[in-house]
Give the backbone structure.
Amino acid sequence: MSNSPLATYRRITKNKNSPRNHKIDRITIHCMAGQMTGRGCADYFATTSRQVSANYCVGYGGDIAVSVDENDRSWCSCSGSNDHRAVTIEVATDSTYPYKCTDKAYNALLDLVTDICKRNGIKKLNYTGDTGGNMTKHKWFANTACPGAYLDGKFPEIQREVNRRLGTSGGNAENGGKLWFVQIGSYAVKQNAEAEAAKAKAAGFGTVIKTATVAGKTLYRVQIGAFGKKENAEAQMKKAKEKGFAAAVL
Ligand SMILES: [Zn+2]
C-alpha cells in the first residue's frame, strides 16, 4: 500500500491505529470547517491533544498533506468500522454554513479521490445515499453537519466526475447512474429558498440549494438528499412530508 504521489507534505500524527484491519474500499470526505492549508491541518493533527486525524488534508489552495498513511486507520468519522476501510479526507472549507470550499480545494479533491481509487483498485464510486455505497459521510455516524451542506451537495457530481476519469459510467450499477433527488421547494426569490432550507435544517435534514435556469429565470431549488435507490428517496420524502414539508422525488 502506498500514499498518493499528489501529496506534497507528510507529517504523521499519533492519532491512528496501525495497520488498518480492512482493505480500502471506501472514501469518506469531510469538511475542516476552517480555511487551512493541507500542511497546516496535518500539523494540527500532529500536535493537538484531541483524538482526531485524517488520512489526507486538502488545503484551500489545493495542497495535499498526509497525516495518517493509507496503510493505517485514521480517527476521523467517529466509526472504527468505517475508518478501518475508508480513506478519509479533510477538505478546507468556510467555518460557517454552508461550509463552502474553494474551487482549488475541490479540484485537488477530485484529483486525490481519482488517484486513491486507481491505486486501491476501486473501479468506480458508488454513491447510494447510505452506507451501502462506497462514498460515506461523517454525519451518518455521529451528530455532526460534516461534510457540510456544500460538499454534501457535491457528492453526486464527485461520483460522476471521478467515474468519468476512471473510465466507468456515471453512478451505481443497478440504475445506470441515475440519482433521485428529494426536493421540498423551488423559489424565484433566493431568500425564500434560504428560509425554507433553514426550516428543513432545523427539522434535522441536510439541505442544499441548487440554482436552475428555467425560461430565462433563475430558480432556487431546496433539496434534502440525493439517492441511488428510489426507495431511499421515497423514504426521505415520506419523512419530510410527516414534518410538514411539500416534498417530492425528482
Ligand atoms: Zn468529519
User: Anything to note?
Assistant: The two ends are 41 Å apart (CA to CA). The pocket of zinc ion is lined by residues 30, 138, 146 (CB under 6 Å).
